[in-house]
Structure formats: structure tokens, C-alpha cells
């Protein structure tokens, strides 16, 4: 039985995690937060934990979470990388940032429309 558990645990750890772009929506106001993650499932858990604890680094999102409640927010994957084609390490991080920039440009989740801050331009 222990061997079976060890094998199942090792298999779980070796599976690629879904990575890509996500959107958190305040369904009461329509405001959104767009972000990228190399582990989308883990990222949603992280956001919820921080918001529940009252320590989220996005103070505006935290304030709305407290005002409208958890049930008013939803998490959606809007662009997922194919695990067979995904890079790893630094290359994955850079690719996700570039992909996130494209989605930020498309959705414009700034000011009254969202919780994102306008990023400073990257030096090329």
C-alpha cells in the first residue's frame, strides 16, 4: 500500500502544471485582474488565500473582495500553453510575460476597468 501511495505521489509531482494567462473577475463591478502563471491552479489558490487572509498585495482588489465577498469573484483561464510545447525555467517566464502583455493590451484592465497597473516598458 505504501509503495502504491509513493508511486501515485511521484506521478502527480511529475505531471506538467497548466501554465498561461488568467483573469479574475469581480462579477459585481465587472473589474478584472489579468495575470500569468506557470501553475494556473496554484495561482488561483494563492490569490484566494491572500485575499481571505486580508494580505493581498493589490489593495484595490483586497478592498473589493472584502466589500463584495468571495462569491462575487471568478477565476478563468483565458490562454493556456500546450504543455508539450511549453518552455521551462526562464524561457517560460519570459514567454508568459510577453503573452500577458498582449492580453493586457487587448483587455486594458486599468483604472475603472480593472485592478492591473500599467507596466513600465521593458528595455529590449
Give the CATH architecture: 3-Layer(aba) Sandwich
Q: In CATH's first tier, which class applies?
A: Alpha Beta
Number of strands: 3
Main beta-sheet annotation: 3 strands, antiparallel
N-to-C CA distance: 54 Å
Uncertain runs with pLDDT below 50, 5 residues or more? Answer: none
Order of helices and strands: HEEHHEH
CATH topology: GIY-YIG endonuclease
Estimated share of beta-strand residues: 15-25%
Strand order of the largest sheet: 2-1-3
Radius of gyration: 17 Å
> Share of helix among residues?
40-55%
Count of separate DSSP helical elements: 4
CATH homologous superfamily heading: GIY-YIG endonuclease
Output the structural class: alpha+beta
Shape: globular
Q: Compute the average pLDDT.
A: 88
| Structural domains: how many | 1
How is this structure best summarized?
The chain has a single domain, classed as GIY-YIG endonuclease, CATH 3.40.1440.10. The protein is built from 4 helices and 3 strands.
Report what the structure shows.
It is a single chain. With 124 residues, the protein is of the alpha+beta class. The chain has a single domain, classed as GIY-YIG endonuclease (3-Layer(aba) Sandwich). It contains four helices and three strands. The chain has a three-stranded antiparallel sheet, with helices on both faces. It is globular. It starts with a helix and ends in a 17-residue tail after the last helix.
Write the layout of secondary structure elements.
Elements: H1 2-14, E1 20-26, E2 32-37, H2 40-53, H3 59-68, E3 73-80, H4 89-107
Antiparallel strand pairs: 1-2, 1-3
Amino acid at each position: 500500500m505504501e509503495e502504491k501511495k509513493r508511486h501515485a505521489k511521484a506521478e502527480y509531482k511529475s505531471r506538467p502544471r497548466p501554465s498561461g494567462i488568467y483573469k479574475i473577475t469581480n462579477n459585481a463591478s465587472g473589474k478584472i485582474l489579468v495575470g500569468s502563471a506557470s501553475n494556473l491552479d496554484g495561482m488561483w489558490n494563492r490569490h484566494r488565500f491572500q485575499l481571505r487572509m486580508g494580505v493581498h498585495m493589490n489593495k484595490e482588489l483586497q478592498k473589493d473582495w472584502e466589500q463584495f465577498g468571495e462569491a462575487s469573484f471568478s477565476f478563468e483561464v483565458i490562454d493556456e500553453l500546450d504543455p508539450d510545447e511549453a518552455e521551462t525555467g526562464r524561457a517560460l517566464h519570459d514567454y508568459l510575460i510577453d503573452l500577458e502583455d498582449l492580453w493586457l493590451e487587448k483587455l486594458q484592465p486599468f483604472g475603472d476597468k480593472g485592478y492591473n497597473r500599467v507596466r513600465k516598458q521593458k528595455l529590449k
